[in-house]
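Task 17 of the worksheet. Students: predict the tertiary structure of the chain below and write it out as structure tokens. Keep your answer in the requested format; marks are given for formatting as well as content.
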Amino acid sequence: MSEKENVIVTGGSGLLGATMVKILLEEENVKPIVMDLNPDPKRLDDIRDQIEYVQGDVADPELLNATFEKYKPTKVFHLVTIPGDVCQNNPMLALKVNVDGFMHLLEAARNNGMPKVLFSSSGTSYGEDLEPGETLTDKTLQRPASFYGVTKVFCENAGRFYRKRFGLDYRGIHYPAIVGPGLREAGVVTYTSAMIEKSANGEPYTIPVSPDISLSLIYVEDGARALIDLSKAPKENIKTINYFINGVKNPLPNTGEMVEIVKAKIPEAQITFDVNEEWDKLLESASHPVDDSSSVEEWNWKPRYDTWEKVVDAYLKALRK
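Model answer:
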């Protein structure tokens, strides 16, 4: 048996990260190395004996360089981020983690054999000066409406620069809102998960945005698999570099329609609306369909959970495990 390749997943104890690590264990001949600040990564409890866990600040350049030098990874999936609601209130922390941390990672990658770097960006890197219902494409001007989006725009362009200037094989995805089980602290878009999970647990839930918000969505398994699939594509196929992906799209429901489907699956669900005007305005600016044709053409992207009903069914199935 050939020796397994080491693959680093930063932020690997989070929802997207833990899902990705488990898919890597199933589908890849790799040894996942998880880097995370979390001292108690509960989402990884069932696979701790199959991975290496490096606990510490991923924004620390000494830790990054030491970890890269020790494990000599072939790929780095960079998922660590300060979430949007925290970025709005603490921009200096957002700069330290989202921007400085990513720059330290790029430098560590460049100085330790230039492994492939895969980056989880966000659709919130767009938002301002768009027409209502305008479709986002690779040519749409990036003017984010949130500071979280500002940090993501910087990182996307820094990765593009390192690819062109230093030959680092950087690739990224503008993620839509990620939906998946294991709800933690509420954020700007976590209502998409909370309406399912709290209803399944018999808890009432109040949605902080208006019913007509239509947010691009992806189920967490699709989101994890997308970055893995992107990492496998031949380098010569990668033209766009930072990609849109669609998850739910047949059709994309608004929040009110999402609630009706949840109630059809969970008749006892108690879901109401109490609009947070700041969040509503922020998400209204991000409520745009996206054109993911570059992902389809360049690395054969295709979601498995392409309707909200499929997402709800998969979510409820995961909660029953």
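Marker's comment: The chain has eleven helices and eleven strands. The mean pLDDT is 92.
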